Amino acid sequence: MFPISVHTKFLWILLCTLGHFAIADEAPLGIASVGFASGNSDVRWGHDIKTVKQLESQVLVQEKPHALTYEAQLGAVAYELEYLFDKQLGALEEKLYYRTITGQNQACRREFARVLTMLIESYGRPAGDANKAINCEERESRRWALGSGEGVELVLDSWKGKPYIGLRFRPALPLAR
Question: What is the model's pLDDT at position 104?
């Protein structure tokens, strides 16, 4: 047996943490998926931009240094799918479906409730009060902690003054720095 350098050990730990290898069974760590959402199920936490671009078959709308945005569907409704990458490591750290909400408060409530219902069917009840009234004038969120340790959050918020509904997926462990 040959000695393993500190650099090699660090690289191995980093690769395991990023999801390229899982220590227990050497399978890549997958991203939680829901049957009603488009997007490539082969994309994994820790993948870099180049790999995600090769795997994702949706139409690429925009590419930024640390983000890829695609056309997507969430329950047959048009959304955008954004993959966000860690600025230091270049590794995938968040997957976000979002849709700007236009029109009246009632349309906003209907869309939030529609997505919430689909998520409850897939993951069960969220933490906290799922039946809380939806107010499109305030930030709302519902959260799930999956058995894999991943976090899922349905949010109603605003970005640059425009209200949006977002469905955010995050890995079980933060990326190693």
Answer: 67
